[in-house]
Queue: 2 jobs
Job 1
Amino acid sequence: MNRNVSSLIQKPRLVFIYLLLAALMSAVDVGCRQPTVSRSVSGEQGPFLNDYDTPTAKIRAGFIPCKTQVVLGEPLQTVFTVENLGPTNFEFWFGGDYRGTGRHNRFKIAAADSEGVELPDPIAHPMELGGFLQPVTLKPGQDFTNVIDLTDFRVIDKPGVYRIGCKFAFDEHRIQKRPTNPVVGSTFTLTILERTPERVARVLDELTDRAWTVRGEDLNETLELTARFGRNEAVPWLAQLAGTGPVELRAAALGALSLVPNDASLYVVLVSLKDSNATIRAAAAGSLGAMRMERGVDALLEVLPKENSPVAEAVLLALGTSKADRAFPVITNTLDAGQIELQRAAINALVNFGGSNAITTLTQRINSSYLSLRYEVVLALAEKLHQPMPAEWLLPVLAGREYNTREWLDSLRLLRMYAGDGAIPAMLSCLDFDVAWSGRNWWILETGVKPCPKAPPIDYEYDPNTDGTPDQWQKNLRLLETLKPLAGPIPTLPDHPAFQSVPYLKTDPPIDFAPTFKEIESGGVEIDSGFLRLEFWRTSARMPYSVPGAYRPVYETAAHFRSLPNLPDETRAKWSITLEQMQQLDRLLNKFAVKLCGSRVSDQKVGNLYNLLVQQGDYCPHSDDWHDLFRNYLEAPPTRKEQAKAELIDSVRIFSQNYHAGTVEFAESARKIFTPSQLEEILR
């Protein structure tokens, strides 16, 4: 089975651009929660919207109150709405006005009581400090909406009848000096009723009914409103939601119960901590931590040794949130001796705990030999606990070779932001001064040093899809030579973790997985292991996979099963294949994909490999680690060349073994899902 892996040909450039975007995203200021543009205005418009002429289109705009009669404590919200009536597009700018207040200050909200007395602004001296500004383009028939909390603008905290006035100017004064678009507005009467048991119950019914119809952040917000509005009275409603319905709804209700920490809500959450569903147990743990009640902390300490990931992580985080003194040593012990996933959770648990003891504990563990964990500790101290960050904290991470990892890339950002004058010397000290063509050097210089204040002139050429030219190499080496005197002490390169290599797979008949390696024409390499031959260059690869006769039947069987998700529904129905059978097969394919990930499992990698297994049922997929490992080998300094070569070779061997073992396991397990008559059709 010869295969040209066309999907790999452009991958280096795409990965390069993707990582650059990821590195820059940390600087994007997304501001307040964004409004939405939809196809048409929904809900009762009543007298609240008016028509306005603009230079390009007619619009219908104004402020629609969510309710004009509310019970004290209910949300006081209105929806700013703009609909384009045509005939052409309507464009305006939104935002740029929330820093310093957390609200959009271009909205002008006035409120007066029944006697005409103006209600005060909750912010004594609001300052306009700008913010992220976004263009909005409405095509004819489209509308724009933004929900406004009136209490962000006026103090409305008593029963009564109020006159509300809302305005918005489309032309942002810092963008457009001469307004050409209208100022739109609406006025309405808002009645706030006294709280009575009957009224509170009616509102709680409305809110919990809404909870069944929304998802995601809207669900969490709805149930948070339920808890804050109803307070103790809301517990029976939230308890009912926590015990029945979809998992997402139950988990959100448990989270909302933490806002009403009393004996009744505690009982509901304690029961849920023993639920059979891991998501529910994790949600219950989080709620108990937020409640900070003694019985809840006792329950968390009791279940921690019995739980596995991811519930165990949720319990640790909850113990940190509880800030209970007796939880502190448990968190610390987990940081010192737990599994790596629990150690990471313990770091964040200490962040939740806060205080000088947490800071001291993390600082004492800054020298972890596990670089990924070291990065997490530094991130916690510098960015979450706001501690001064010496540059040497991150030098071992930055001196590492895996420059495509999140930890390595983000170390550049942390140094830029928190290491002060020590940032540039520290980053320069980690360059490979004797490597003329290096993506690692490019990242340090372009995304680390260059954006720093007082950065020296830098023009380092690099393209991951080429080997460069002699002129480019000489230019880069001259630049590195000028930068070397500005570098700090050259750090001792950390010892690369010893291979935790997977043992050789034993099979019957035997398969020789011992890898061979040779360099081939045009700067490529060839690696053989088992049935896999990998021929690799910077921008392309070939992966012939040749299965001998003894193993061909099992591979052909696996290919038939792998292709089932691609069959037409009518074919599966003709063979009487049920939804449950396809779900079982899907779980086996997912397990196969996880096996191919080896030690680097992520949702993205599993998804990519799953798709390759299904879409090309009779081919061996590829590992997206190979391009990075191959580039590391080509660009490694002489002292690291053999190590980089060994990592690439071993990655290919392990993948080859996992693909063979996974194929055999998948074929055998998939057979058990289907009936004899179905197997006859599938394997025909």
Job 2
Amino acid sequence: MSLKKTYLNISYKTADLFERAKMTEHTFMIIVAIIIGVLAGFGAIAIRVLIKEISLLSYPGGENFLLNVMNAPWLKILLIPVIGGLIVGPIIYFLAPEAKGHGVPEVMQAILLKGGMIRARVAVIKAIASAISIGTGGSVGREGPIVQIGSSLGSTVGQFFRIPSKKLKTLVGCGAAAGIAAAFNAPIAGALFAVEIILMDFAVAQFSPIVISSVMATVISHSFQGDFAAFLVPKYHLSSPYEIFFYFILGAVSGVVSFLFIKVLYFLEDFFDNKFHIAEYLKPAVGGIGIGIIALIFPQIMGVGYDSINLALHENLVWYVALSLVFVKLIATSLTLGSGGSGGIFAPSLFIGAMLGYFFGSIAHNLFPAITATPGAYALVAMGGLVAGTTRAPITAIIIVFELTNDYRIILPLMVTCIISTILSSKLSRESIYTLKLLLRNISIREGTELNIMESIFVKNVYTTSFDTLNVNDNFSQVVNKVIRGKGPEFPVTDPSGHVLGMISIYDIKDNLYERDSLKNLLIAGDIANTNFALLTPDDNCQTATDKMRKYDLEGLPVVDQTDSKIITGMIWMKDIQSAYQKEIEARDITSNLASHIMMKDESPQVRFMEGYSISEIDPPQSFIGKSIRELDIRVKYGVDVLSIKTKKGKEEKINVIPNPEYVITDNDILVVAGEIKNINLISNLN
């Protein structure tokens, strides 16, 4: 038996088990969330162990990675990152290109464009590639990889149980939440990270599975790693009410540095992707050379960097070293990721924030010792500021630093710094460190996932070939008559060959309506046509059409032939785009809900899509058995459409999505029908 058949048989058996247990959809999602949380928890532990073992293999010594690197020979510091790059490059290039970089944008892309579908192999390849990158000295974090691994596990579990797209996205969020929770021992931050960054929707319908996954991953992490904060920090206190002013300044500085981090990272990514022409799988080794050279002077930039963060929190640094490390770490992380290494930006953001805060706190405390805390407090707060500024997720940043420290007294300055950092960073760059990568792939989420729905609707499916035109030589009186009698607010002006020369709207002529007799022989359509407009082709999407209409302040635009960019073939109107968009939203909701009901084996699968109408599953009446759909003439006799037919044969189930009219209904069939509820009930009660 093939692997595919085995998978299907297991899926059918699972579905039968749910049906016999009369399991509700919500209960099922909770059970799956528990499974994902446990798997992601173990995945986080596995990658931690793997990183530790590779780190000790690369730089032998004790538990302190920074100390091991500083005690290593200079040639080893120089060469180990290169070796790591030579191993990581081919693994990513040949086995899973999605494992390249920091991982979170790839998860967001899967949510936006693939319905949450992530290949199962990504979890394994990402774990191996990231562990090697970090363990050999790559200047990246482990949290991003853990998020991608958790998300991949969530998607894989969902695909195994054949979860519909809408619910699959929630399971991907469960995996991401579990990953962050296990990485930091921070269950609340994990759940918020999933909804604020991964799903980009605080109104997510099923928040409880995400929380359950986050909690389960934390329980697993506690069992093996212990129940303690990721960073041990000195007790913090607000020295004076006036000190809050310094945190406003720290937030602004954090916002500027966050913006700089985003720009440098994507500058180097662009350089390696488009301007540095060597084999793709060799580029991480080149990045490794750069890391090795930097580490000869600043060994602190290698690896995750938690040892250096602890030095800043416990005030064991010199201020000018901390300032230098802000920019050196920023460049090193960008070099590792830009060249094609694998790892996250969460830990580097914490590192840069800690160094920036320590430097700022040192200056503030030296100048105003009576009203400011020591530099360690500012280092702690700026960690959140950098995370908020780079990710544009201030709530997650506030909660994650709070959970990292278990100290409530840090909340007030933390909130101020994170919010100010987010605001200023957003003003300098609209995109976050995650969404900019998507934008560079032509995936825009400025307006949320709805924008991508607009991009999936094409002009050829919306525009009309029935439209009114004005001839370029029409006199003013003819123009007025045609505009008054015509349809729509805009009219294309064409020459005798059908080429579009401009647009005239009713607003262009309204001021001269009473003078049309005197202007009759003075003006022609070509004189008053507005030449400031855009053309569309049938293959353009509706988002492009909408953007152009807004740019030129028009309600409609001409659609031209592909072979000749000036010959008009139709018009597309804003109102038709909005109607098509609304229908697409409704269709997706109906399809998702129906699939959810069918998959979860609800007792009476039914989706109501407008008042008095529904899509339902019914058993065929005895009078239908042995007769074809054409013979029964169900639509005419009962006012109901048969959308699909499910046939159960033993343990297997076959779905006939669009049944042929000659299909003969059997005892094993279940009909999926759409129509008025009263008509569906009538069929259900037939003998």
